[in-house]
């Protein structure tokens, strides 16, 4: 059974990049809820149609929808075997509770939560530079505001459970990856 890791950090902190490295080196399955939603929008599915405006505004898609998507994905055989990197989920206390129930129902537990820590000014500059479709100035500001409001409290939630590891996300990609590996003992 592979590790079950939650990857936290502000949008633009480099979560996606670090996840790709972990996938390449260790074969862990990357589950990015943002990527899943963007694929649904591109494919024009009912979920995509529902999520599109919410994402453009930088708001959060509803907890019930997100919990359903993740629960279904986590039950797939590749994840049970190779482990999972959850990127972009949980984002609210209700999602964190739902996640612990999903694991508990299967007799599993979270291995670790890593927080890739980069200051607000730095992530804002990075997001403006990458120019993704939902990266409007207002969208970025709103997403960062929601992160502080909804997601930052999860750091304490994971810390209380002895699962949180904080990683300095400033520096070269390789340097940060070295910190991630040693934090996870990989
Ligand atoms: P991300 O790529 O993780 O920054 O996600 C892009 C957008 O997708 C977010 O701004 C939200 O609108 C939506 N989204 C992704 N994951 C979640 C989640 N766990 N809960 C609610 N909305 C989400």
Describe it.
The protein is α/β, with parallel strands linked by helices. 60% of the residues lie in helices and 13% in strands. Strands 2-3-1-4-5 form a five-stranded parallel beta sheet, with helices on both faces. Helix 1 packs across helix 10 (173-184) and helix 4 (63-74) runs parallel beside helix 6. It is globular, with a radius of gyration of 16 Å. Adenosine monophosphate is lined by residues 11, 33-34, 37, 54-55, 58-61, 66, 88-89, 91, 95, 143.
Mean pLDDT across residues: 95
| Count of helix runs | 10
Please report which band the strand proportion falls in: under 5%, 5-15%, 15-25%, 25-35%, 35-45% or over 45%.
5-15%
Radius of gyration: 16 Å
Q: Please tally the β strands and state the result.
A: 5
Strand order of the largest sheet: 2-3-1-4-5
Class computed from helices, strands and strand pairing: alpha/beta
Uncertain runs: none
User: Which range best describes the helical content: under 10%, 10-25%, 25-40%, 40-55%, 55-70% or over 70%?
Assistant: 55-70%
* Distance between the ends: 15 Å
State the shape: globular
Instruction: Describe the largest sheet.
Output: 5 strands, parallel
* SSE pattern, N- to C-terminal: EHEHHHHEHEHHHEH
Small molecules bound in the structure, each named once? adenosine monophosphate
């Amino acid at each position: 059974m592979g590790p079950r890791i939650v990857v936290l950090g502000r949008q633009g902190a480099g979560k996606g990049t670090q996840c790709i490295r972990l996938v390449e080196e260790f074969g862990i399955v990357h589950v990015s809820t943002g990527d899943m939603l963007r694929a649904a929008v591109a494919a024009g599915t009912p979920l995509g149609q529902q999520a599109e405006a919410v994402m453009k505004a930088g708001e959060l898609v509803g907890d019930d929808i997100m919990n359903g998507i993740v629960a279904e994905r986590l039950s797939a055989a590749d994840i049970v075997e190779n482990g999972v990197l959850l990127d972009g989920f949980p984002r609210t206390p209700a999602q964190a509770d739902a996640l612990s129930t999903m694991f508990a129902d299967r007799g599993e537990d979270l291995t670790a939560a890593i927080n890739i820590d980069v200051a607000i000014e730095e992530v804002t500059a990075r997001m403006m530079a990458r120019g993704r479709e939902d990266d409007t100035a207002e969208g970025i500001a709103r997403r960062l505001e929601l992160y502080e409001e909804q997601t930052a409290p999860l750091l304490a939630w994971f810390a209380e459970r002895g699962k949180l590891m904080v990683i300095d996300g400033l520096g070269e990609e390789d340097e940060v990856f070295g910190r991630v590996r040693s934090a996870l003992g990989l």
